[in-house]
Amino acid sequence: MAKILIVDDSESIRVELKDILESAGFTVFAGVDGNNGFQIAESQDYFDFILSDYNMPGLDGLSMIQKIKTLPKYETTPFGMLTTESSKELKDAGKQAGIVVWVVKPFEKDRLITTIQKVFEKEVNGFFLAYTQL
After folding, report:
1. DSSP assignment of 11-49
2. 6, containing H or E segment
3. Contact assessment for residue 42 and residue 54, using Cβ atoms and an 8 Å cutoff
4. What CATH number corresponds to the domain at position 78?
5. pTM value?
6. Which tens digits make up the pLDDT trace of 35-60?
7. Closest CA to 5 of 27, 35, 33
8. Whole-angstrom distance, CA of residue 78 vs CA of residue 93
């Protein structure tokens, strides 16, 4: 199954996401903030999907994604943002950075799993899921 990196500074969110995604069959790695998320991405051969919080100390989620995308192995990796933020400006910046899924907290477990699975189905067909919000 797919290998996913989740990055969130909230331990309870990380634990919840890890449990949800592992129960759906995904292999999950977790980072505690943007800098740690970048280090994990850099140290691994690949991730099939990266899901990050936006508001984190140090390196925010959008900046982390932009930094990860500078690594050649992640140029085509789909990214998602999991956040309480929903401003049009931030979503537009996210879309420009390559974010294909925007999830607003709190989220529904089943919709999160379904949305991530759709990302992989669309990738197999050569295009990504349309920019969406749960």
Report:
1. HHHHHHHHHHHHHTT-EEEEESSHHHHHHHHHHSS--SE
2. strand 3-7
3. no
4. 3.40.50.2300
5. 0.89
6. 999 999 999 999 999 999 999 999 99
7. 27
8. 15
Counted domains in the chain: 1
Chunk the chain into consecutive blocks of 10 residues (it has 134) and report each block's average pLDDT, rounded to whole numbers: 95 97 97 98 97 95 96 94 88 88 88 87 49 42
Nearest to 65 by CA among 126, 123, 6: 6
DSSP category for residue 86: -
| CA 117 – CA 91 distance, rounded (Å) | 21
The DSSP secondary-structure symbol of 57 reads S
- Residue 34 belongs to domain spanning: 3-133
Phi, psi for residue 117 in degrees, rounded to 5:
-60, -35
Query: Do the Cβ atoms of 2 and 27 come closer than 8 Å?
Result: yes
Q: Which residues pair with 28 in a beta bridge?
A: 4
